[in-house]
Amino acid sequence: MMTRRQLLTSLAAAQAAPSRSVANSVLVHEHIMVDFIGADQIKPARYDAGEVFRAAKPKLDELKRHGCRRMLECTPNFLGRDPRLITRLSEASGIEIWTNTGLYGAANHKYLPEFAREETGDQLARRWIREARLGVDGVKPRFVKIGVNRGPLHEWDRKLALAAAITARETGLTVSSHTGDGAAAMEQIKIFADARAAPAQFVWVHAQNEKDHGFHRRAALAGAWVEFDGIGPKSAAWHRECVEFMAAEKLLERTLISQDAGWYHVGEAGGGNYRGYGFIYTDFLPGIDSGWVRTLMVENPVRAFGG
């Protein structure tokens, strides 16, 4: 853990350092639109796609100026996934924006549709494989997004992890899994191994929420990706500590970073507070070793997700 003096020094250095653009950089976990109404009530009529476009476009234009070439839009089905809107924004901004297949079981399964509670892991996997191969609204998903709660995993969460592992094995896509804690991460890694899916196809999303670095080490040594996202003004010091730990353990090449930023909040006036995507460039990257930046922002995202 950082001492108080080290923390203050790190913050002062970040404030004094210039912002950093990173050519060909990739943000692996961001959002453009999310609707938290629940799987039983969500529908396209709840938002105006044109209004969302107008809210998101300036944020993406700013991001483009920082050198970003690709963003993984991590909003899953039944939470506001809209591949057509993403395509419009991608074409207008010049940033590749990837959509996903999969389902989200976190938040105690509020966003899990009824069919997902009843079908087997194999049946769910067939749905996702079909989407991966045929596309959604004419757009092919480029990764799988799931969400699970804290460990030990609920049976529905285990089923989602199994479906994701099968999909990864059959399509080659990487899985980003919103994960409750380190125990849940390790349980999913075992599910992947049992399903004969490559551990490198599993990304532990929100790893910063696990305060025991031992779990970060174990997951990376098992071959999985450890993603510290949610980077923002209040969390930057802890995120730097996480990255510094992985570097000290010689595990930086299993590490991903992003912000989990955005987004247009469906149901809130004007889309609510839409946080932009620039903080990681202007405030976070200047505060870490410059030799790590290309690894974290250019090389690792491509190694993890392809492209």
Word description of this protein:
Helices cover 44% and strands 13% of the residues. With 307 residues, the protein is an alpha/beta fold. It has a single domain (9-13, 24-276, 295-305), classed as TIM Barrel. The strands form three sheets. It has a six-stranded parallel sheet with strand order 5-6-7-8-9-10. The protein has a three-stranded parallel sheet with strand order 1-3-4. Strand 9 (225-228), helix 9 and strand 10 form a beta-alpha-beta unit. The longest helix is centred in the first third of the chain and has 17 residues, at 49-65.
CATH architecture: Alpha-Beta Barrel
Question: What structural class do you assign from the helix and strand content?
Answer: alpha/beta
The number of helical segments is 11
CATH class: Alpha Beta
Percentage of residues in helical conformation: 40-55%
What is the 3D form?
globular
Low-confidence stretches: 1-17
| Average pLDDT metric | 94
Largest sheet descriptor:
6 strands, parallel
In angstroms, what is the radius of gyration?
A: 18 Å
CATH topology: TIM Barrel
Number of strands: 11
What are the main properties of this structure?
globular; 13% strand; disordered N terminus; TIM Barrel; 6-stranded parallel sheet; alpha/beta; 307 residues
